[in-house]
Amino acid sequence: MSRTLLSNFLALHLSRTFHLKSTYATFKNRKATNENVPKLLSQHVPHVNPFESEMEQFIKTTHSLTGIHQFQENIISKYNSKLLTKESFDAIFMRMCLACRNYQLGKQFLHHIDQAGRQANTATLGKFLSLCYFCSAEVEDKSEVEKLCNVLKSHGEYLDAATKESIILGLSITDKWQEGLKLLQEDETAHYSLAMNAMVNCLLSHNHFDSAILWMDKIIAKERPISEFVYEHWLRKCAAHHNCWQIFSDFLVRGGVFLKQPIVQKLKDVLRNRSRDPFLGQFTAIDESTGRCQSCQKVLKNTDITDEEFAALRKRITEKVLLGTDVFLGSKPEEMQRFKELIKTTAPYDIVIDGLNVAYHISTKNRKQSSTKVDALMSVVKYFTNQKLRVLVLTREHLLKGVALQRMKQEAHIFITENLVNTQSLSRTISSGTISIV
């Protein structure tokens, strides 16, 4: 990897981004998406049912299941819940073992079910296989996990997505991990996010770098998160195999991936400590208005679309969305003509506001006061007009009437319609140029 590429790469991942007329806005949106993905099978998920807290406390404080029968009877009787019954207890208890990452107790409980002459049901086995995956360092005999995967597969020809993912997770810690990869390939439409990450980890362990990247691309395409342990594994491989750097960096740049700071710190350390062509860098910030790096004072490239590209995009949007054959996407001819006249005489705009979205946002918080919707919309409009920006408000007749309509006309241009669809907000923006905000 060249020093210039490394510099640009680190700048991209260590920077803050700025808005308007800039591709950095796209990066910022994707960064927020990556940072806000939910944790999968987290140990810290809030309890939905009251009995879960008591069950969790039991799992954390007990080391033996000699009193499990009495505990089961007491908790079922105490909460009298349709969700917690004698039939459902096994699966719920194993799920809580999974949440607590208590492999030893989960293993004891599975043995307890066997000793009682019962067969663990599908849900219970699935949760235990997931527990084996998360606590793989504690699993001494991986062949037993493989046997349980085969048992679970024998429970039915058509297994639900959660069960399949549990099997894949179980296989991923055994020598039969490639069978898990086959299961994943059989149903690529499903969102097996955790299982896909597990298989990427297996591929990296066996130095199948190109296949690992292929599956990471699939995870990104499904808009699912790539686990931090995958990135950490890549960094270990990059430290050991110099040819991995280009493969890994190409993926990060191509996918527009934003790494979290702990991973970037590890990346920085690996780059600094590599034997060949070490790279020294430092954390920095990017000025939002100029794109200038506060460390080296260089300016990040800002890519604008050309006037020709902008015109072509506006033409295609107008033809396909506004004037298309789908009556549910289009508008009445007279409505469209009225809109064109407004744009012709009043454009361009700096800000385009969808009044219905503002009203909906307010209504979800305060359903009792209809006047609140209009007041909120007025506040949004004034926020921008006070900055001397030209504003266009899109709304419908039922939202702005009488005095409220006259007040709004004093602040902004307004387009009122009966059936104009939300996608036309984009048209207003395009008609107003590349620096408008919706």
Q: What can you see in these coordinates?
A:
This protein has 438 residues and is mainly α. 58% of the residues lie in helices and 3% in strands. α5 runs parallel beside α7. The protein is extended and about 80 Å long. The N terminus is likely disordered.
Could you give a quick summary of the protein structure above?
The chain is mainly alpha-helical. The chain has a three-stranded parallel sheet with strand order 1-2-3, sandwiched between helices. The longest helix is centred in the last third of the chain and has 16 residues.
Question: What distinguishing features does this structure have?
Answer:
mainly alpha, disordered N terminus, 21 helices, 438 residues, 3 strands, three-stranded parallel sheet
Structural class given helices, strands, pairing? Answer: mainly alpha
| End-to-end separation | 39 Å
Largest pleated sheet: 3 strands, parallel
The poorly predicted ranges are: 1-42, 419-430
Percentage of β-strand residues: under 5%
**Counting H and I runs of at least 4 residues, what is the number of helices?**
21
Q: List SSEs in N-to-C order.
A: HHHHHHHHHHHHHHHHHEHHEHEH
Write down the overall mean pLDDT: 79
Helix content: 55-70%
